[in-house]
Amino acid sequence: MVFETRDQGELRAQLRSLRQARVDEATIRIDTLCGRLTQPTTYRLSRYVADG
User: Fold this and answer.
1) pLDDT, tens digit, for every residue of 1-52?
2) Using an 8 Å Cβ cutoff, are 30 and 37 in contact?
3) H helix or E strand, kind and range, residue 15
4) Which of 23, 29, 43, 52 places its Cα 20 to 30 Å from the Cα of 37?
5) Residues 6+ apart with CB under 8 A from 11
6) pLDDT at 51 (0 to 100)
7) In what side-by-side order are the strands of the sheet with 28-33?
8) DSSP 8-state code for residue 22
9) Cβ atoms 27, 47 nearer than 8 A
């Protein structure tokens, strides 16, 4: 996992910075962990790393 937030704006800013760093977008995964009454929605950004 690279980044986790509850704020969509922060997620977008993180994605912009990865794009500016020329990270291959095919290796980026965005998960949305849907919130319920007891848990808020969370956005998780991770990056695939090939097994070396």
Assistant:
1) 789 999 999 999 999 999 999 988 899 999 999 888 788 899 999 988 877 6
2) no
3) helix 8-20
4) 29
5) 3, 5, 30, 43, 45
6) 77
7) 3-5, 42-47, 28-33
8) T
9) yes
